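Hey team,

Sharing the Homoserine O-succinyltransferase run so nobody has to redo it. Sequence (399 residues) first:
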Amino acid sequence: MHFDTPLTLECHRTLPEFDLVYETYGQLNDQKSNAVLICHALSGSHHAAGYHSEEDVKPGWWDNMIGPGKAIDTTRFFVVCLNNIGSCHGSTGPTTPIPQSSSEGTPGTPYGPDFPLITIKDWVRTQAMLSDRLGIDTWHAVVGGSMGGMQALQWSVDYPDRLRRCVIIASTPKLSAQNIAFNEVARQSILSDPDFNQGRYLEAGTYPRRGLILARMVGHITYLTEEAMKSKFGRDLKSGKFMYGYDVEFQVESYLRYQGERFSKNFDANTYLLMTKALDYFDPTRGYVSDESLSDLEALKQTLKHTRCQFLIVSFTTDWRFAPARSEEIVDALMANDKPVSYVNVDAPHGHDSFLFDIPRYMGAIRGFLNSPFLGAHSNTDSAKPAATTKPHTQESLT
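Structure output:
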């Protein structure tokens, strides 16, 4: 979908026009009350479920979650997943030619490093613009994992009247210093690649493949757990013996190089840089809390005070990138405001990547929440009224 209205971003720069690519699944009902927005994570795209074509090797990235009879049931819900601006999967981003209407850069050449830095708040704003175009005033739910969960949280803050339910999975109210450090190592691996050419590699006919591979390898290590890597690879050797060199010897080395190589063929380096920056910048309290002396929790409490949806927060016991304690910060802030929130800490061995796995009780929690009656300010738009109040806070370890 094309937007010819200039979009001024949080960084104070303006895109004169932009495109958003999106996919939909299921049917929008006459009341337009069954729409579910899916927010993608860092390397995700608009292709969340099913296959584009017979040539597709794999279905969409959340195919185990979205579809007929699945947790997000497309026989009941109209599901929308868009590709965020700044991405390299169709929406306007660093690989997009600069339009003639732009006052910056050379029209016709790729934006490259001239593409402005994006924030989570910017993404949510463009998602709201897409909602307007689709005629969806209020989402039945906004759902996201990891970086997608940050977008869902931002939705509840910026547009409290436009969503009834908010599902935040394996996410955090803001990045820790350790997480920012991981992102910085990933960025430096790209920026220091001699083929990066100050971000103008497309014009130079080069590509920072090695930097992108290293960046993905660093990221991938943080998405897994020590136990998962031990179980999957142990200290197994490819050839069964030491080769006394720096080529691949251990199976885990082979796996990381394969994942990095694969990622480098499907992702854009400038996009990786700006998306990790968007993660670093994320702080839903910015713009809502002016008292800098407040603790993080107090600031979050104040920010979430005016939310009007009901929340489901999901974390995973082995996720050390966005540990359960980070999800509990959101839960605590909501509970302090007496907001309707359910929390599930799922026992899963897959680390941060758990949100992508088909874990029965995790899927059951999502299904149950999306199909439950709404208890908040929008309850008059739901056909079913609750027979009893839900628990304001449910914490359990699912096995």
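The two ends are 43 Å apart (CA to CA).

Ping me if you want the raw files.
A.
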